[in-house]
Design goal:
Layout lengths: L12 H5 L4 H27 L12 H4 L2 H4 L1 H17 L6 H30 L19 H24 L3 H6 L20
Helix pairs in contact: 2-7, 5-6, 6-7
Length: 196
Amino acid sequence: MTQPLTAAPSSGLLARLNGAHHKAALNGFLVIVLAHWAEHLVQAYQIWVLGTPRPQARGVLGQFYPWLVSSEWLHYGYAIVMLVFLFALRRGFVGRAHTWWVVALAIQFWHHIEHFMLLWQVQSGTMFFGQKVPTSILQLVLPRVELHLFYNSVVFIPMVVAMYLHLRPNRREQELMTCSCIGHRISRQSVVPHAA
């Protein structure tokens, strides 16, 4: 009699990021996100509290490297980094946390489209919507600083909800988890089957 074939656990990068290194990858990603948030919050503080004119409100790094604020490549690059991390780390989430993480991924996908439009305008020299400067779709409704605070919020909030739920899984979610984010696991033998 032959033994049944079982799939060997994948040892690829994505499998490791969503398994043994999920917690470390999430923490590293969170540091990047919080640093980006800090830049936007400092810029908002400069505008609304200090009264700095918008072109001179450059956040922290922009004070030392002013070209960073106006570099569409940098903004698009960050949008791609966010998109890649949200996509790459999604398999480590299960249940309710997975749903919220995918919401953040979907919103970030749109945010990345808007940044791509801005980059395209800068690179081609062709401005959209009859504007004199590169303009995204929602920038027709909200000024750029406010729009980016909005985008960062609507991506960050479902990310935080996902991480919160991920670290506090219900019993069923805990059974499905294969990552390193919570230290204890429910053994399948200790799960009491539901009464029929």
